[in-house]
Amino acid sequence: MVTTEPLTDVDPATATGGTVAAARRGRKGRRALQPHGLPWILPGLVLSVGVLYYCIGYTAVISTWDWDGISPNPEQVGLRNYTQMFADPIFWGAIRNTVLFFVITFTVQTVLGMLFAVLLHSRVKLAVLYKVIIFIPVVLAPAIMAPVFRQFFGADGQFNWILEHIGLGAITQPWLGQSSTALWVLMAITVWQWTGLTFVLYYAAMGQIDQSILEAARIDGAGNLRVIWSIIWPGVRGTTVALAMLGAIGALKTFDWPWLVTVAGPNHATEFLGTIIYRQTIPNYHVGYGAAVSILLLVLALIMAIFLQVRGREKNEKAS
Amino acid sequence: MFTAHRGRRGLRTVAAVGTTLMAAAALTACAGGGSGGSEGSADSGTIDWWGWTPDVNVATSYIEAFNEEYPDIKVNYKQVPIEDWEAALRPALQTSSGPDIFGVQPGSRVDAFKTFAEDLTPLAEEALGADWQEKVSQIGIDGLTADGKLVAMSVGAVYAGSMWVNQALFDQVGLEHPTTLDEWIDACNTFRENNIGCFVQGASQEGFDQDTLQAIAERVEPGAWTEASKGERPWNDPAIVETFEIWKRLFTDGIMQEGAIGYAQYPDANNDFMAGEYAMIMMGSWYTQYAPEEGMLAAIGAAGVSNPEPFPLVPIEFPDVAGKGNPAGYFGDADYGLALSNKSDNKAAARTFITWLTTNEDAQQLVADKLNNIPALNGAVPNWENIKLPFPDVQLEALQSYTETVSDTELARFLHLNTDEQDAILAAAVSIAEGTATPQEAADTMQSTVEALG
């Protein structure tokens, strides 16, 4: 029995008992007939390890130096850059901004993305046009749009002009020119840019939900909200977890919008880890300190990704 | 089996050796050439000059004039935006393919880049004699020297502390230039009543905040700011606190435009002023280049105005905001110096160009006439007869007086401050403006920050 199907593809998910053992031996036999893969991936592996992981390791080493990025004799300072970082209120402000930024932008993008996806899965006229309009911000470069938003949200910009013309002149203010509102403007810009991606992913994920389940729910009398909450939302959980991971890592890496729109100000109100890294490393010549923040950013990104992945799996297991 | 096994092992070995060689080659390439450069000819060759300033058209005019005397030296000028300058220059200087000549800002940058540059003291002595230091602006030497090494030779200097006004807007509402804080507040009220912006400042940028603060401090107590910058008096000294209090009044009494701390001096404030939306702006001697018609039309066009029309751009003294009768103070630094890369492959030709632009009388006259810098060579002043001003009756006398006056100062602008201290000044300025700290609190914080920096 065992030798009768050595080259047959077997799906591990469906294989049982002796069939599994046979499949394993079969694959082993097949591998023996194929050229060994290591030499073929070795150049790419060396390049990857040499460039990517070497750089990460080198950054970790630099993070223990007091170095201006130029001097041939950097000073070894051990963990001083890290202790300075943890004692720096600007760093903690950046962490607070990152958490707030992630929570708000992820929540709003998820709600809007789901809403657009549900609406456009129904029979809507000009649906293709709406999809394009929603997605266009995703492909626009921040460097192009930043001057537009600086103008739009300026003290005498179009946003205040609109507010005045709809009877809300009392709340006009310099949105980018005060600490209390600048971060919210950046969050609005981020939502504007990335909701299109959220929408596209949810739209695709909803297409994978079994129509018969939806029809059964309808027959059982479920309304729109009930269907969304009990059928669609659990059905796109994998997408939500992936978006949460992307959003969390994106929030940690945020640099372009705050730097281009507010230069991380005013008074560090829109400071993020990315802006600290750039400012300390390039204009301020504190390459060691910048490297320490970079390493912390890497660690936080890994922790965040692992946490969200594990949580997602746990929920999936409970659901199944 | 044996053959196949040996074949696989051979393949692995070849791949391993190949990848090791690849990695070694990549690392060698990353490490740079390590060349010490070469001399080449003093009269011929191609040299690369990198800078964030001057603008390309100004640099081109320098190069064209240089080529009239040295036709066989080709100079390629590359302007890198100021925000990318540090990021571009650092890796470039570590390879032999970087610039032969590079611009250097005075102050902390000189110390950072000194290892990449040759000492130009012998060049200065050769060009101007043993007493060369008496023939050029002292401010250009102080700011570009580190550890006794003349890292770069100054082309010219810029000075701040002045305000510039759109005289047409003053005439339109019948106002005189403000000379006190109260007059300034009144002027702003009048401009606002006429739907004209009064004073515009990009208060999100430290350098320009510092210009205004130092100008205020000069009116409070001359030299106090410079002493604090040097560490000779604390930042929470009463004179600095009073300076901060006046700074706060610029915001609370309606002088600064709304949202100033979210504004950048460039491009926001500059564009608004050039577009004729504001009557006053805090700018330094570099703004002189926009007084002539050609420079002004280009600047207005760059501000987004479709059919630019010149206006009478005039420098004025900073008002006596302290009411103490102290004179208006100016302060400056070398705008930029030219450094010779020690990895240059055409050092002799590069020396020829540096010497020519920084010490040659014709070249320095050209620098003076471009109005971007006050020339480094003593005695070179703009030839106003050859400069076409759109409103000479209003502008000429003011500009002549201004260019002669500003360079008399020996007070530095950024020379004594490192980037951390400048960040601390910006934090103090913005927190006072926002009201999150009182002037005294901001001054105390600044002092403790500077002490912590050592």
How many domain units of chain A? 2
Extract low-pLDDT stretches of chain B: 1-8, 10-35
Order of SSEs of chain B, N→C?
HEHEHEHHHEEEEHHEHHHHEHEEHHEHHH
- How big is the Rg of chain B? 26 Å
SSE layout and pairing:
The complex is a heterodimer of chains A (320) and B (454).
Chain A: H1 18-33, H2 38-62, E1 65-66, E2 75-76, H3 80-87, H4 89-121, H5 127-139, H6 142-152, H7 158-165, H8 179-207, H9 211-219, H10 224-235, H11 237-253, H12 256-262, H13 273-281, H14 287-319
Antiparallel strand pairs in A: 1-2
Chain B: H1 2-31, E1 45-51, H2 56-69, E2 73-79, H3 82-93, E3 101-104, H4 108-113, H5 121-128, H6 138-143, E4 145-146, E5 149-150, E6 153-160, E7 163-166, H7 167-173, H8 181-193, E8 197-200, H9 206-220, H10 224-230, H11 238-252, H12 265-274, E9 278-282, H13 293-302, E10 313-316, E11 331-340, H14 347-359, H15 361-370, E12 374-375, H16 392-406, H17 419-434, H18 439-453
Parallel strand pairs in B: 1-2, 1-3, 8-9
Antiparallel strand pairs in B: 3-11, 4-5, 6-11, 6-12, 7-9, 7-10
Helix pairs in contact in B: 2-15, 9-11, 9-17, 11-18, 14-15, 17-18
Describe the model.
The complex is a heterodimer of chains A (320) and B (454). Chain A has 320 residues and is mainly alpha-helical. Helix content of chain A is 72%, strand content 1%. Chain A contains 14 helices and two strands. A two-stranded antiparallel ribbon of chain A has the order 1-2. Chain B is an alpha/beta fold and 454 residues long. Chain B folds into two domains: 45-157 and 333-380, Periplasmic binding protein-like II (D-Maltodextrin-Binding Protein, domain 2); 162-329 and 409-453, 3-Layer(aba) Sandwich (D-Maltodextrin-Binding Protein, domain 2), CATH 3.40.190. In chain B, 49% of the residues lie in helices and 13% in strands. Chain B contains 18 helices and twelve strands. The model of chain B is unreliable at 1-8 and 10-35 (pLDDT under 50). Chain A binds chain B through residues 35-36, 38-40, 42-43, 45-47, 50-51, 68-72, 150, 154-156, 173-179, 182, 262-263, 265-268, 282-285, and chain B through 8, 11-12, 14-16, 18-20, 22-23, 26-27, 86-87, 90, 93, 108, 112-113, 115-116, 204-205, 257-264, 268, 419-420, 423, 427, 430-431, 434, 436.
